[in-house]
Amino acid sequence: MGKYPIKPNSCNGSTGMTRTPPPVPNAPSSPIMMHSNWTCSDPNVTYKSTLYAATYTIIFIPGLLANSAALWVLCRFISKKNKAIIFMINLAVADLAHVLSLPLRIYYYINRTWPFGRFLCLLCFYLKYLNMYASICFLTCISIQRYFFLYQPFKAKNWKRRYDIAISAAVWLFVGAACSPFPIMRGFRLQNNSKTCFADLEVRQIESKVATVAMTATAELFGFIGPLIVIVFCTWKTKISLRGFRIPLQNNSEGRKASRMVSTCAIVFFVCFAPYHINFFFYMMVKENVITDCLLRRITLHTQPFCLTLASLDCCLDPILYFFMTSEFQDQISRHSSMAIRSRLMSKESASSVKE
Tag placement on the chain: N or C end, fewer CB within 10 Å? Predict the structure, then answer.
């Protein structure tokens, strides 16, 4: 016979004989292995543009109205003695800055092109992370202050407004510097006439895997784990105070308001920022090729768009702190609403009397 095995050739109904070729060295031995090699390529997450455009469109109007109204009321009508007022104003400013950049993001994800230049792309990209980490810091500051004043009411009376202003300035300087690597890591190859932006920007590759892990772990420690521990601790201690342990309070009403506020800070933190930061570590490890496992890479890349959109929801959830957790805010809103209704009724009555 021959060197190779002979099999009947039945492709066209003939009865001739053909020789099968020898196996190719290092070739996949089964369809399962071929499928495994195919799935290890990074997926093309095609739905992310639609997801981003829809989410940012939903967030824009409520976020713009709520934060604009909150900032106006906070700056003009709330008593100067109100606790955490400065931190709330800075939180509203951070949210409003991000909300104002959303129309450009919506335009890009709908049209899939960026005609506004490199600077505006990186600025909007930067504002996203500036808002996220400024919100985390100011939520942490609000929790700490409410907890501290709850347990030290006499020191709260002597607390000066300039202390909060100094802390807020330090937060902005720290967060502004800490967020600068985000546009640097993503905009290093972006040209001024480039048509791509935001999620489509390429991530700069770091040569050392140890440096990648160290940088990402440091960002997670100071940007997520540290604030998480502080907020959980403050929430836990304020809850304990309401159960009668070591309560140096004039009344329980102040304790309930403080508990509601720190609990809301914790809810916003867990809903908006925890999913993103849990996934962020794996996302950076995937982008820097530290993680090579096929399944883990696919899960991480598919989860990232959902976590990123959740992080933007803080623009709509943060105003809950102002509208529902601050009695002075409620009083001012109800007072001005009743005044507006009264003036409208009076104008209608005067108009009807003139007609008569």
Answer: C
Give the residue among 64, 63, 49 at the shortest CA–CA distance from 106.
Answer: 49
- Which of 22-26, 82-86, 146-150, 295-299 has the highest mean predicted lDDT (pLDDT)? 295-299
Residue 163 maps to a domain: yes
Cβ atoms of 262 and 321 closer than 8 Å: no
CATH code, 209: 1.20.1070.10
The CA R_g of the chain, rounded to the nearest whole Å, is 29
C-alpha span between 179 and 252 (Å, rounded): 40
Domain boundaries, position 227: 46-317
Residue 9 banded pLDDT, cuts 50, 70, 90: very low
User: Is 346 inside a domain boundary?
Assistant: no
| pLDDT for residue 141 | 93
Counting beta carbons within 10 angstroms of the beta carbon of residue 100, is it exposed (0 to 12), middle (13 to 18) or buried (19 or more)?
middle
Q: Which residue has the tokens 């709908």?
A: 110
Helix and strand counts by DSSP (H, E) for the chain: 15, 2
Q: Is 202 strand, coil or helix?
A: coil
The DSSP output letter for 271 is I
Three-state DSSP class for residue 17: strand
Is 24 inside any structural domain? no
Number of independent structural domains in the chain: 1
Q: Give the integer Cα–Cα distance in Å for 324 and 328.
A: 10
